[in-house]
Hints:
About 50% of the residues lie in helices and about 15% in strands. The chain is built from 9 helices and 7 strands. It has helices at about 10-25, 35-50, 65-80, 100-130, 150-170, 190-195, 200-215, 215-230, 245-250, and strands spanning about 5, 25-30, 55-60, 85, 135-140, 175-185, 235-240. It has a 7-stranded parallel β-sheet, with helices on both faces. The termini are far apart.
Amino acid sequence: xxSIVITGSTRGIGYGLAxxxxxxxxxxxxxxxxxxxxxxxxxxxxxxxxxxxxxxLAGDASKADDVQALWNAAAAAFxxxxxxxxxxxVGHPYKMVWELPAETVNRVVDIxxxxxxxxxxxxxxxxxxxxxxxxxxxxxxxxxxxxxPGISVYGSTKxxxxxxxxxxxKEVKGTPVKVSTLSPGIVITDFLSEQYKDDPExxxxxxxxxxxxxxxVETVTPWLVEQVLKNDKSGANINxxxxxxxxxxxxxMPFSKxxxxx
Length: 262
């Protein structure tokens, strides 16, 4: 029975991953920024799967002590942590870099970049001490070098995900710790719509692309979880929206009637 920690798992992809791991008999530690969000997520998951394989702790991914506390809670509850997924992240409105207020920039960099670093530090230290473990970092727009106006700060943090992950793969070589990445593609969640909260017309225009290239949480997360559970190789990139799939969807765009918002 694998023990899994997922940062930012009270909603969206993180919650979907937690649900799917529990369906497969794993133990899961849930994490979110507030105690209320963690309690709500755990109650929903417990209603479906029981509480005996669940634990959770609120904490801020950008605070190293909070991240360490999450490891400690999971290790105390489960005995060890087999898989740690750095999933916590926030976006920002689609605005040019110079239009973003300092507090927004700080929030995105703190959670999406510093949280990634702290989560990796804590997970690798703990896994080295226990003699095994697999760290997964969540990629996103920007990880593959793509660029788009209005998403530069978020994209920069996701470009850092790939750089840091590849660096960590080299640093853990020869140890019992493995490092890999997850690429979920475009997933229809509040995370996506919140980036358009100041631009409802832009969101309506974007829906055409989201309907073509995107997928729902319940479509993507079962596949991701299956791949994680059968992967034993460091350096894996578990990628849902592959280039062939992307090209196929673009080719079908004029004929498709997909509506993920109905």
